[in-house]
Specification:
This protein is mainly beta and 369 residues long. The chain has 3 helices and 17 strands.
Amino acid sequence: MLKLPVRMIILLLFITLSTSVLSQSDSEINVYKIKNIVSLTSEKGFIYIHTPKVGYLRGSYPEQFSVEISKLYRSQNTFNLYGCYIRRGFSFSYVNFDNPIVNGGYLAGYFIEPIYRLSQSLLFTLKGELGLSYLTNPNSLNNSQNLSYSTHINSNIRIGGGFSYYLTNKFVLSANSSFHHASNTAFNHPNLGINWITGSFSILYYPLGNKLPHYVRKKPDNWKNERIKKEISLFFCPAQSYYWTYQFKRNYVAGMDFELIKKVSDINEVTAGIEAYYNDITADQGTVYKNNTAAFQSGVLIGHRLLMNRFLFSQQLGFYLTSFPSYNSEIFFRLGIYYTLFPNWKVGINFKAHGKTADFLDFRLGYTF
């Protein structure tokens, strides 16, 4: 476990080395994209007990240490599109959960941080991060108490926000609060996941200066002339382990969805669609859930999309037309992230769940016309 004095030494060393870098000229301060922003973060928090089944995590206080490499986008066009400035990049972390059952691990992710100016020196920030984690002590014969995760590789999700203050023209101090989640999205069971909440302090170094230009926002309106688009996606989920809650093993999922898409701003879209897929499963004989008779599933969905250059983030609420009897819910939700490879073509991943219970994660290929 990384102790506080060691963290402070690292931070002081970082400051000392950074201040030795030669100052940049005034003309360099005017660049619209600042690269190689480096930040160090120290976090402390607690584990959220989202179900009594993970009561063994009560009284655990995780510590986390992170390094980020990022870019700041501060052009007039960025401000026009989003009404803020954007910092985005990669984060690498070590976390100790302060609990021998779940131990700790390493996190890596890609984050996007909208930045809003409150005054000349004070900023308000939001942050979203998505990536992977390597956790060191999964459920096994020697660690059967761990119901939180059963694979080394898991998701890494962070949502947070906070405030930043300019210390100098190159250094920024940031205080944030974050919600973290790690699980394997139901590829293996047990998979109750780990949710932890942290408070943090960060110091950021901007090699070309951290000044933010003052702009008057000019909202684009060319989206108003765009027609309603249509999109077809094929999706596939590989085999999962035995699903002890519903007494079956999922062999694969293969399906298709069709959506109508209407732009409501330059970066926002609303959607309506229908999906159908084949859910190949092997159920226990005599299971009370009778899931072996419900292989075909379908539903209708409404949703929203946020567009950020080649990336697309989607949220959908679904209503079953056909479903497993054991789900005890006619409603599900989906969260997705997609990347545009070529005009009209995109690839992505999409996560399906019922309330707090993960169903599956699928991989997608979509075509828009």
